[in-house]
Design goal:
The protein is mainly β. Helices cover 0% and strands 44% of the residues. The protein is built from no helices and ten strands. The strands form two sheets. Strands 1-3-5-7-9 form a five-stranded parallel beta sheet, with no helix packed on it.
């Protein structure tokens, strides 16, 4: 089924195995996105990781936002990002991304 909001805090762990999620708030700990369902908004904060490396079917993230210290792992290139990732005032040196090899990255408007 679908979930409206999924929150992960501190050193917690949250695994999404099925369904769509309107909002993921990763405020610490690790969110494992193993679901083929669409994620409306994925927010990844300082010290938080969203890990899609176990996602076999692929999924879509409509909007994603990161702050300094955030990590997004998609080494198998299973996430389709509808819109550019919003980084606020952060640079690439402030976050950790693993989008796999051979991928096209298209920055959005400032």
């Amino acid at each position: 089924g679908a979930a409206t909001t999924a929150n992960c805090r501190d050193s917690g762990t949250l695994t999404i195995d099925a369904g769509a999620v309107t909002t993921i708030n990763a405020l610490g700990g690790t969110v494992f996105d193993n679901s083929s369902g669409t994620k409306g908004t994925v927010s990844v904060g300082n010290g938080a990781t969203v890990d899609a490396s176990g996602n076999a079917a692929g999924c879509t993230w409509t909007n994603a936002t990161v702050t300094a210290g955030a990590t997004i792992l998609d080494p198998n290139r299973k996430v389709t990002f509808t819109n550019a990732i919003t980084m606020g005032n952060n640079g690439l040196e402030d976050v950790t991304f693993d989008f796999g090899k051979g991928r096209t990255i298209a920055p959005g408007a400032p």
